[in-house]
């Protein structure tokens, strides 16, 4: 009787075992074997591949980044999920809010990666992150009208701390020319008119500051106002004597300006405030910010997942406990700290551990979001595995990375399984 | 319906007849049918082909065997329009021979893709390999099969010795270069040059002058797609080939001289004359490092009078990206050869060679066809394609720009040099975020550090060439 039952049981188990064997056990076993052989797969390499794991610079960065990921991504996601779950419980439109937060989960990693590649685009006209950042920045610091202006050939001006200053001192009764080039026509202020050569006036310093460049003709007469050249309307001009500003003015629409007699013998300066570059925002995908930026994208996706699980756990917390605490005079923060969080601890642990396993194998987001130039700085183990195996032709090292990842996941998995068993027994 | 029943009844000749009938003009239909019915294994089918290629002066120049019922797989990394156009060439081959050809899209690097296919026992019959190094690798591993006499005959007839030689390994012909790229071009926005009053430069000094003029007009001179490391290696290669000369170029490509060589220092210093000026690069170095190649092209040709940049350096294939903008190649988007840094203008090329992986009559016939002017002419007409085949009539190219580029390529005879990073081991010359790609990206970020860049390049090169992968 028991014998037949065993056979029947074995028969029923067989399909599952065959599938598991072929799709899980065999690949793992083969990876282990492969990790001990050399690049071409026909010779034994001993521990060389594992040695490479800890000596190769690329793998070391990947390892470091993986640690950052495992520490921060699950923690931040769980924390946000907890906050969302607790808050939505008290809001009338909680379900709608939950739905919105959960929605990114419905998007594939690949699509999310493409979305965030755009979000983090350097160009504020394309990337939302920089658009917001630049918008905030520009409300506090205005950009200037002539960002790229610079002296042309044989210019009387020379650069000085971001601005430009005349090489020689100016004197009354003189008409000074302050030509620059390089301002794009569509960036010229609307009030700019055709430049006019200033006439000398006794007792005053007059002059013109203008764009010494005619479209389609180049510079024209160097250092002289040609017809069709525009004045720098609104350019600030300072007269500097011994490092002190003695007089200042702004240019008219045609670029002309007049300075009083006390500017006699001073150097004329176009201060740096005229030329400040427009703020271009943060270098989100540059080497230093790329990992946090991608973790941000990950949190955007997975905070919803954490929230839903935690909300389910929250529903199981007995109301009486909370009520009792409140009756005893605990404020909301104390209730949250002393009652809600401890009661939710098992759920929080499960969520964090699940996310940790998920994060250890993170690949797609990093692969897609990081541009080629900073892929090395954003590297993680799974990506390095792919690069070693499929673009550098080092399947041995790639297998070693795979085995290493497996070893990293096993303790976390055991913890999760233990926990699950205990829950079931309870 | 009708043709299906035909196929069932007589298996030997009908598929070809069916294909021909479908594509031929109605008037030709009867004649074509008769021809292919009578001439089963001969050249009759080829005549069908030429009669359909309306206006092709070359006509059919290659004789192909009948391959009814056989099927072939061709692997290449081409996507999008390139793939579509290549499929038209394959369709012509199907029409002429009756074989069925399937295109297998491969990923870069194709040699690893093929490795997994071969390990799985399912290699494609023919693969298009983009690097001489890859051909050598395929031969060393015993994957590639030598080309047959028919294919070799086509090569001798249509290719300069230089192009034949880079398809050889140890004196044996394995690869037939089907597609070439001229990577020594600088594309510019004609409107920007007109507004600035700038002229096409002939020398590096002129180029710097032109850049300054463009900058003075209020437009950033260069757009660099630095997120893709290969655009940067191409910059370097052009400067190096022109400055240090072909001999040094070959030595460096084989790592016979070190990257710490003074010639490398000179080339990097020259390069820094452009890369080192942050106002010369669209978005500055950091912006350039996050600009992928396609965006680097499109941003040069969008924005009307005020594009993000005036010039963008890259090969003829940039046209594909220009096609995505409203700019018209030849009028809005013009091109000049990479200026001479040293004695003469460099011609750095790339290319894809057809290699037989499963030796069969059909596979050999396909490579023979691809080496013939017939195949190249079809794709040349569709645009975005250059052939190293000197018997492709220049009139086949769809516009003046393409004709100029093709002429320059053919005219360079054997003085061209193949892309250096493509000759290097994959780990050094072809992996994102690694080796030469990464080192030059770092150099773009910090162009003052010539010596440090050389040291890093040498270290990475030593590791990659040493492992012999």
UniProtKB/TrEMBL annotation, chain A:
Q: What is its main location?
A: membrane
Which BP terms does GO give this entry?
Answer: transmembrane transport
Top-rank taxon: Bacteria
Q: Where in the cell is it found?
A: Cell membrane
User: Which InterPro entries does this one have?
Assistant: MetI-like (IPR000515), MetI-like_sf (IPR035906), UgpAE/MalFG_permease (IPR050809)
The UniProt entry's GO CC annotations, sorted and at most eight, read: plasma membrane
Question: Pfam families in the record, alphabetically?
Answer: BPD_transp_1
**What are the entry keywords?**
Cell membrane, Membrane, Transmembrane, Transmembrane helix, Transport
**What transmembrane ranges does the database entry give?**
7-28, 67-87, 99-120, 297-317, 347-370, 397-417
Annotated membrane topology is: Multi-pass membrane protein
Domain ABC transmembrane type-1, first and last residues per copy: 63-416
The entry's family comment says:
Belongs to the binding-protein-dependent transport system permease family.
Q: Which named protein is this? A: ABC transporter permease
* Organism whose genome encodes this protein: Streptomyces echinoruber
The root-end lineage is: Bacteria, Bacillati, Actinomycetota, Actinomycetes, Kitasatosporales
Automatic annotation (TrEMBL), chain B:
Keyword annotations of the record: Signal, Transport
List the PANTHER family hit by this protein, alphabetically: ARABINOSE-BINDING PROTEIN-RELATED, OSMOPROTECTIVE COMPOUNDS-BINDING PROTEIN GGTB
SUPFAM superfamilies for the chain: Periplasmic binding protein-like II
Give the Polar residues compositional bias ranges. 52-65
Q: Of which family is this protein a member? A: Belongs to the bacterial solute-binding protein 1 family.
What's this protein's name?
Answer: Sugar ABC transporter substrate-binding protein
Signal sequence interval, chain numbering: 1-41
Region (Disordered) residue spans: 45-65
Top-level taxon of the source organism: Bacteria
Query: Which InterPro entries does the protein's record reference?
Result: Bact_solute-bd_prot1 (IPR050490), SBP (IPR006059)
């Amino acid at each position: 009787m028991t014998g037949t039952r065993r056979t029947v049981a074995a028969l029923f188990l067989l399909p599952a075992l065959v599938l598991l064997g072929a799709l899980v056990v065999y690949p793992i076993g083969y990876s282990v074997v492969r990790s001990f052989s050399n690049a071409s797969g026909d010779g034994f390499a001993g521990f060389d591949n594992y040695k490479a794991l800890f000596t190769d610079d690329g793998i070391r960065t990947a390892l470091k980044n993986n640690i950052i990921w495992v520490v921060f991504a699950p923690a931040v996601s769980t924390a946000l999920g907890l906050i969302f779950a607790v808050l939505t419980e008290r809001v009338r439109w909680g379900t709608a809010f939950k739905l919105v937060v959960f929605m990114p989960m419905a998007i594939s990693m690949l699509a999310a990666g493409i979305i965030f590649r755009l979000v983090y685009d350097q160009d504020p006209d394309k990337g939302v992150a920089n658009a917001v950042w630049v918008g905030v920045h520009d409300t506090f610091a205005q950009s200037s009208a002539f960002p790229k202006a610079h002296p042309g050939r044989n210019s009387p001006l020379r650069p000085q701390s971001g601005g430009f200053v005349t090489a020689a001192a100016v004197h009354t009764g003189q008409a000074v020319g302050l030509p620059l080039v390089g301002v794009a026509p569509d960036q010229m202020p609307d009030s700019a008119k055709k430049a006019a050569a200033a006439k000398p006036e006794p007792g005053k310093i007059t002059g013109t500051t203008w764009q010494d460049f005619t479209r389609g003709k180049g510079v024209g007469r160097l250092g002289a106002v040609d017809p069709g050249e525009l004045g720098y309307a609104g350019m600030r001009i300072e007269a500097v004597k011994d490092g002190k500003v003695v007089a200042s003015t702004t240019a008219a629409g045609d670029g002309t300006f007049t300075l009083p007699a006390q500017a006699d013998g001073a150097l004329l300066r176009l201060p740096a405030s005229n030329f400040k570059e427009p703020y271009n925002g943060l270098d989100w995908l540059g080497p230093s910010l790329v990992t946090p930026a991608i973790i941000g994208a990950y949190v955007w996706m997975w905070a919803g997942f954490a929230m839903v699980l935690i909300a389910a756990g929250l529903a199981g917390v007995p109301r009486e406990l909370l009520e009792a605490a409140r009756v005893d005079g605990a404020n909301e923060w104390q209730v949250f700290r002393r009652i809600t969080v401890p009661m939710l601890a098992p759920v929080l642990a499960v969520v964090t551990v699940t996310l940790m396993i998920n994060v250890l194998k993170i690949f797609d987001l990093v692969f897609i979001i990081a541009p080629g130039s900073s892929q090395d700085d954003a590297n993680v183990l799974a990506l390095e595995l792919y690069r070693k195996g499929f673009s550098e032709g080092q399947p041995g090292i790639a297998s070693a990375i795979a085995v290493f990842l497996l070893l990293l996941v096993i303790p976390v998995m055991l913890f999760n399984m233990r926990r699950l068993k205990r829950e079931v027994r309870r | 319906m009708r043709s299906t029943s035909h196929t069932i009844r007589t298996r030997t000749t009908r598929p070809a007849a069916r294909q021909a009938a479908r594509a031929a003009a109605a008037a030709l239909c009867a004649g074509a049918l008769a021809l292919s019915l009578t001439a089963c294994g001969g050249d009759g089918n080829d005549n069908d082909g030429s009669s359909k290629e309306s206006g092709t002066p070359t006509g059919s120049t290659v004789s192909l065997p009948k391959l009814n019922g056989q099927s072939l797989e061709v692997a290449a990394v081409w996507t999008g329009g390139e793939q579509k156009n290549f499929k038209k060439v394959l369709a012509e081959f199907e029409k002429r021979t009756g074989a069925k050809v399937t295109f297998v899209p491969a990923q870069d690097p194709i040699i690893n893709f093929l490795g997994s296919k071969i390990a799985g026992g399912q290699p494609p019959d023919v693969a298009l390999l983009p690097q001489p190094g890859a051909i050598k690798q395929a031969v060393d591993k015993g994957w590639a099969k030598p080309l047959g006499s028919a294919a070799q005959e086509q090569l001798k007839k249509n290719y300069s010795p230089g192009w034949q030689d880079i398809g050889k390994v140890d004196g044996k012909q394995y690869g037939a270069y089907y597609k070439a790229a001229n990577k020594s071009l600088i594309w510019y926005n004609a409107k920007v040059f007109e507004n600035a009053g700038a002229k096409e430069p002939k020398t590096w000094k002129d180029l710097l002058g032109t850049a300054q003029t463009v900058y003075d007009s209020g437009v950033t001179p260069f757009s660099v797609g630095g997120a893709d490391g290969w655009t940067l290696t191409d910059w370097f290669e052009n400067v190096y080939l022109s400055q240090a000369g072909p001999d040094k170029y070959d030595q460096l490509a084989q790592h016979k001289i070190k990257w710490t060589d003074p010639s490398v220092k000179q080339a990097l210093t020259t390069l820094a004359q452009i890369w080192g000026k942050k106002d010369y690069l669209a978005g500055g170095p950091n912006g350039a490092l996050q600009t992928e190649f396609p965006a680097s092209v499109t941003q040069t040709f969008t924005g009307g009078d005020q594009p993000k940049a005036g010039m963008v350096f890259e090969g003829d294939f940039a046209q594909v990206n220009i096609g995505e903008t409203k700019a018209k190649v030849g009028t809005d988007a013009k091109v000049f050869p990479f200026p001479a840094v040293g004695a003469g203008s460099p011609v750095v090329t790339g290319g894809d060679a057809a290699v037989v992986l499963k030796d069969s009559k059909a596979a050999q016939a396909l490579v023979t066809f691809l080496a013939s002017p017939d195949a190249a002419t079809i794709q040349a007409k569709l645009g975005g394609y250059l052939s190293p085949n000197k018997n492709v009539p220049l009139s086949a190219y769809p516009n003046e720009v393409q004709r100029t580029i093709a002429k320059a390529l053919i005219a360079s005879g054997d003085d061209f040099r193949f892309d250096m990073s493509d000759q290097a081991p994959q780990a050094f010359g072809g992996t994102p975020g690694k080796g030469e790609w990464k080192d030059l990206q770092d150099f773009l970020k910090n162009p003052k550090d010539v010596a440090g860049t050389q040291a890093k390049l040498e270290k990475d090169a030593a590791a990659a060439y040493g492992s012999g992968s």
